[in-house]
Amino acid sequence: MSYNLTLQCGCIVYVACDPRTGLSHTRIVERRGQHCRFRHHDVGTRIYLWEMLPTPCHLPQPIYVSDGGQLAQI
């Protein structure tokens, strides 16, 4: 199982998980965000798990997708 996650800084991280346990074992920066201020977020570097957690002051904004007249929240 693998996923691509977008961090708050805009970087995209590839996350690979163990299919039996669901625990992530690999977290690699695939694309650096345009306005990322973290010097260690270079493409190909590992990301620690705690770097992926949102900061307490971050208020996420829902993304709405139109589906033929209906709106669905992602």
Structure description:
The chain is mainly beta and 74 residues long. The chain has one domain. Helix content is 0%, strand content 36%. The chain contains no helices and 5 strands. The chain has a 3-stranded antiparallel beta sheet with strand order 1-2-3, with no helix packed on it. A two-stranded antiparallel sheet has the order 4-5. It is globular and about 35 Å long. The mean pLDDT is 82.
Provide a short characterization of the protein structure.
This protein is mainly beta. The protein contains no helices and five strands. Helix content is 0%, strand content 36%.
Helix/strand-derived class? mainly beta
Number of domains: 1
Rg, alpha carbons: 15 Å
The shape, in one word, is globular
Mean pLDDT over the full residue set: 82
The description of the largest β-sheet is: 3 strands, antiparallel
Strand content: 35-45%
Number of helical runs?
A: 0
Strand order across the largest sheet: 1-2-3
Helix content range:
under 10%
List the secondary-structure elements in sequence, H or E. Answer: EEEEE
Span of the ends, CA to CA: 20 Å
Which stretches of 5+ consecutive residues score pLDDT under 50?
none
Find the count of extended strands (DSSP E, 2+ residues).
5
